[in-house]
Write a structure and sequence with these properties.
Vanillyl-alcohol Oxidase, Chain A, domain 3, binds flavin-adenine dinucleotide, 13 helices, alpha+beta, globular, eight-stranded antiparallel beta sheet, 448 residues, 26% helix, single chain, five-stranded antiparallel beta sheet, 25% strand
């Protein structure tokens, strides 16, 4: 999120950038190259970090020790093979624009994060997941080949067979291996529409059971009540392909995209009363059994209809905690979490669940288990802060793995405790950033 005039081309300008969750803001230097030769405009040893749309919850693409290279000037679709479903696209193109181009042509990116302004480069570097990671994997699964700019080495072409280690390190590498300039992506055929079935669940363990049974759905995630009295009850959304249905009408215009910058309300509405009202409303709306036909773009970007939701956190912002708990530990974790919530009564405005069935690579968020994401209002309040710490301790005790690109409350020692082989993974990445030239506030906080 930017707050002053943006520099273009060669110029390095100063501007104030803030993370999406509003937990970190800083005056930083920004360059916005708009042609390839400008990628070499900075002295090769100048600290830098690539930046996409800046819609990461955390400060991953800026920091006061580095120049942010805003890549949104590189947004062309370079080649598209409609027969084989291969798309070559520049790294600054947004996911929303790419989907808008593809859907009417009978293709789509099956893995897309919830924010349509996220860029292709940001999705590769954070190895994001989409609407059902257990079925589709994470974004690296779509990348056939990519081009990386490394100061002093120029533009490198990488794929899983050529420079495979650097390719693997770049996917989920948080911008530390260099700047991605373009990628060739493997597309999938979209369903005509999604038939969304809502399955009511009594608690998180019940939800996990439904998630596991529906592992092959196109869309699969749970919404749960985060309040102590009904903790974990909610609904699992199971979206199956419906190729018979007449697709529901949906406005594909870019104006519908959730803006990168959301003007916050002066104060948060997500106090205990606001959370209770919202939960009651969602329960009435969602927890009825039945089937709804959903247009695919609506399923891909459900938050476009909820911009008020983020604005409602006010200037204090929010913190998202997202941890992946392995299946054998999930039931015990869910019970311990319910007990902790009953005791401490945190203000959880949103609690959601997803199923994962991948292999954790590098520092990326993947593995086999159930991921829980919690949105906490007023994160600086002592009780909320204490809950974040207790949540992390519980997750650690149940062998959880945190999502680095989501959680501003995560610290270096918790991350080390969560990943027993952290140092091996960190060194595998640091090998390509030996002089620490690529750095951000996130890499400073987590000592990457
Ligand atoms: C409302 C909302 C919903 C979301 N939903 C999901 C979700 O469902 N699943 C999920 O996994 N994530 C989700 N996210 C997180 C988001 O998709 C990721 O943080 C994504 O990386 C943001 O992309 P960006 O272009 O804004 O990248 P930025 O925030 O600008 O940068 C993110 C990281 O990518 C690096 N990077 C960016 N561009 C390049 C490049 N060209 N070359 C090299 N490195 C680069 C940066 O250095 C940084 O480390 C969500 C975020 C929001 C706000």
């Amino acid at each position: 999120m930017a707050t002053s005039a943006e520099p273009r081309g060669l110029a390095v300008g100063e501007m104030r950038l803030a993370s999406f969750d509003r937990q970190f803001a800083q005056q930083v230097r920004v360059q916005r190259p708009d042609r390839y030769r400008l990628l070499d405009a900075l002295p090769a040893d100048m600290p830098r970090i690539a930046r996409g749309a800046g819609v990461s919850y955390v400060a991953a693409s800026f920091g006061n020790e580095a120049v942010s290279l805003d890549m949104r000037g590189f947004q062309r679709l370079l080649a598209f093979d409609i027969r084989t479903g291969l798309l070559c696209v520049e790294a600054g193109a947004s996911i929303g624009d790419v989907q808008r181009f593809l859907l009417p042509r009978g293709w789509y990116l099956p893995i897309a994060p919830g924010h349509p302004r996220a860029t292709i480069g940001g999705c590769i570097a954070a190895d994001v997941h989409g609407k059902n990671p257990a079925r589709d994997g994470t974004f690296r699964a779509l990348v056939e080949e990519l081009q990386l700019h490394v100061p002093g080495r120029g533009l490198l072409s990488l794929d899983p067979h050529h420079d495979a280690d650097l390719f693997a390190a770049t996917c989920g590498g948080l911008g530390l291996t260099g700047t991605i300039t373009r990628a060739t992506l493997r597309l999938a055929r979209p369903p005509r529409a999604i038939a969304l079935r809502r399955v009511a669940v009594a608690n998180l363990a019940d939800g996990a059971r439904v998630l596991r049974e529906a592992a092959n759905a196109h869309v699969l995630y749970g919404w749960h009540d985060g309040q102590a009295a009904r903790f974990g009850s909610g609904v699992i959304n199971v979206g199956l392909a419906d190729d018979e249905a007449e697709p529901p009408r949906f406005d594909l215009s870019p104006a519908r995209d959730l803006p990168a910058t959301l003007a916050p309300l002066p104060l948060t509405v997500w106090n205990a009363r606001g959370i209770a009202l919202a939960n009651r409303w969602l329960r009435r709306r969602w927890c009825q059994p039945g089937m709804t036909a959903l247009a695919l773009p609506a399923a891909l970007f459900p938050l476009n209809d909820a911009r008020w939701y983020f604005a409602g956190y006010g200037k204090a912002g929010l913190v998202e905690l997202q941890w992946l708990i392995p299946h054998p530990r999930f039931e015990a974790f869910a019970a311990a979490l319910a007990e902790c919530v009953a005791r401490t009564r945190p203000r959880i405005a949103l609690l959601s669940s997803k199923l994962f069935d991948g292999r954790a690579q590098g520092l990326a968020f993947d593995g086999k288990g159930i991921a829980l994401a919690l949105h906490l209002a007023a994160p600086a309040a002592p009780a909320q802060h204490a809950f974040c710490e207790q949540f992390a301790q519980l997750a650690l005790a149940h062998e959880g793995r945190p999502n680095l690109i989501k959680d501003s409350s995560l610290d270096a020692s918790t991350l080390r405790a969560a990943l027993p082989d952290f140092e091996v993974r960190r060194l595998a990445l640091a090998r390509y950033n030996a002089d620490g030239r690529c750095r951000s506030e996130l890499t400073r906080r987590l000592a990457l």
